[in-house]
Amino acid sequence: MRIKAYSGRKTQTEEQNPQPGGADIKFLLCVLFLAGIGIVMVYSASSTIASEKFGSGYFFLRKQAFFFMLGVIVLAAARYFPLKLLHGLAYPLLALSFVFLVAVHISGLGVSAGGAVRWLSIGGITFQPAEFARFAMILFLAYSMTKKQDKLEDFYIGFLPHVLILSIFVLPILLQPDFGSVVILGAITWMMMFVAGVRISHLVLSLMVSIPILIAFLVSSNYRLQRIIAFWDPWEHASDGGYQIIHSLMAFGSGGIWGAGVGKSYQKLFYLPEPHTDFIFSIIGEEFGLVGVLFIIGMYVLIIWKGIRISMTTEDFFTCLLAMGLTAGIAIQVCVNMGVTLGLLPTKGLTLPFLSYGGTSLLLNMGAVGILMNISVNRETVVSEK
């Protein structure tokens, strides 16, 4: 059953407020506020590490501030980019992202960190191709399923081609290895196909086939298996697999209700690994307490809800799918990161959107917000090719 885009019928609230500008300003302020907190928290969480490794406590702060300013430019460009031109970018960006993923393995440009080769360095610029591939895949799926929207229930048109493209992208990501990105990319693809109207029986079949394969892949690697075991009982594995989870939970626990105060985290002092990237939420919990954690969660809820509303209220099938895919990408990343730091999911290296240190993630998420705002403002303009 297809979840249709906006029906064209305005509610009383929409008739009283025909311009979505006010809501978009609130949306933008939420994003900028989170990114601003991110700059402060990246400095707080990384200053000691940066002083030790690079001789300056401002090393990560300067880079994150630069990424933020560049991200604002990307957001503004995406906000005013002609939506119809995105159609023509679907295949080129998909091809380019695949080239980047393959280049990590065969060009000698891949950058290794933590036992994985997930970054690509070109001309002194280092970025994570899997993040770029996620955006390219969302754009491709929105465009492809829009072109086939009357035949999406056909297995060979609506389901199989999109799953094959996903499979082609999954292979180089698994070889990095980056199992988490594969799961997220698969979840986004499944969700977009569901929203578009792909037959439920085909989607259920894909889950039945995928889950055993994913489980087999999980247990095939010793370090992934250790993470699963440590997840069930981290205190039993406090010196190895459960180390990060335990120190993350200790950070939240020591923060209490009101927190220890900005800059007063104890766990960031070489106890909690990756405090400015994967586990920045733990440092926020320690320094701002339960109140700060709930506030951050509330900001994400507002951003995700706004993205869902934009998708539901656009009249155009392409922008409906695009908005849903971009929103799902942010939402899944938030849930996985928070789930890991709170001990609800096995440890997985994944940044927290807008808050964690990392240029690729921040720029692409800011661009996603710009596109969502663009769709919101132009939601009554049909941009799909007929």
Structure summarized in a few sentences:
The protein is mainly α and 386 residues long. It is built from 13 helices and 3 strands; from the N terminus they run H-H-H-H-E-E-E-H-H-H-H-H-H-H-H-H.
Beta content: under 5%
Order of helices and strands: HHHHEEEHHHHHHHHH
Instruction: Return the average pLDDT rounded to an integer.
Output: 86
What share of the residues lie within helices? Answer: 55-70%
Kindly describe this structure.
With 386 residues, this protein is mainly alpha-helical. It has one domain. 68% of the residues lie in helices and 4% in strands.
Index terms:
single chain, 386 residues, mainly alpha, 3-stranded antiparallel sheet, 3 strands, globular, disordered C terminus
Helix and strand arrangement:
Elements: H1 12-16, H2 21-54, H3 59-80, H4 86-106, E1 110-113, E2 116-122, E3 125-127, H5 129-147, H6 155-174, H7 179-196, H8 200-219, H9 222-232, H10 243-255, H11 280-313, H12 317-341, H13 359-377
Antiparallel strand pairs: 1-2, 2-3
Helix pairs in contact: 2-3, 2-11, 2-13, 3-13, 4-5, 5-6, 5-7, 5-12, 6-7, 7-12, 10-11, 11-12, 11-13, 12-13
